[in-house]
Write a structure and sequence with these properties.
Structural class: alpha+beta
Distance between the termini: 53 Å
Radius of gyration: 19 Å
Largest sheet: 4 strands, antiparallel
Order of helices and strands: HHEEEEEEHEEHHHEEHHEEH
Number of strands: 12
Helix content: 40-55%
């Protein structure tokens, strides 16, 4: 199934393109559906030469060590592109991407994308900005895993998601709009479930954790101090 002009317009790198430009992309697109829990990309897979974009749902990208330990690298949301090696690398998937819910992925053939770039070179700049930002995020993640204390990484993660998804004002402070389970936080910052539970308890009253992954920032200044390494 090909993508509609409306669907293409929702992909962030294509936002602002004229309808005629989007129509020229349509014949080069196809949409693939995935169920919750299904692997979209397996680490080491040979990727098709295409731009990958998420148009519905959410993906989780993780690395799995030979020991079986999982580290969550990032989550991909609707409108974002991913799998850069499919376009500009060796086409080998560097990590595994799993659908967190029923999900739709759009593939745009590489040649169709190159033709669009030839017509509108600004597209290449947009892609470079996205992939450069992604590379910086990966660098920060790896740097944090090897050089920062676990509690610092955890505080930074909570602040990151507070900024990314926003917060709601509640009686105890600012409640994150996204739910973050102990398991998800532990895998993201590279610690055990038990250590994550222990560290979250030590971060009171800066944050409060409730069942279901509901996190409330009670003292943002204290949380930012932890994230900067100024205090334990």
């Amino acid at each position: 199934m090909q993508a509609t002009v409306e669907t293409l317009a929702k992909i962030l790198v294509f936002s602002g393109l004229e309808p005629a430009e989007l129509q020229r992309l349509q014949p080069h697109t196809r949409i693939q559906d995935y169920h919750s829990g299904e692997i979209v990309i397996h680490e080491g897979d040979r990727l098709p030469e295409a731009l990958h974009a998420l148009i519905a749902g959410e993906l989780q990208v993780k690395k799995i060590a030979p020991t079986g330990k999982e580290t969550i690298l990032r989550n991909i949301h609707s409108g974002e592109i991913f799998a850069a090696p499919a376009l500009f690398g060796d086409r080998n998937a560097p990590a595994t991407a799993i659908a967190l819910c029923d999900t739709q992925v759009l593939l745009l053939d590489r040649q169709g994308l190159l033709d669009a770039i030839a017509q509108n070179p600004e597209l290449a700049l947009r892609l470079l900005v996205v992939f450069n930002r992604r590379l910086q995020q990966l660098h920060d993640t790896v740097h944090g895993l090897v050089s920062e204390r676990a509690i610092v990484r955890l505080a930074r993660l909570i602040l990151y998601f507070a900024t990314l998804h926003g917060t709601d004002r509640v009686s105890g402070g600012e409640q994150l709009k996204i739910e973050l389970s102990y398991y998800r936080m532990a895998r993201t910052v590279g610690i055990t479930y038990e250590e994550c539970v222990r560290l979250i308890k030590t971060m009171k009253p800066a944050i409060a954790y409730r069942r279901g992954g509901k996190i409330t920032i009670g003292d943002r200044d204290s949380l930012e101090a932890i994230a900067s390494g100024e205090r334990d």
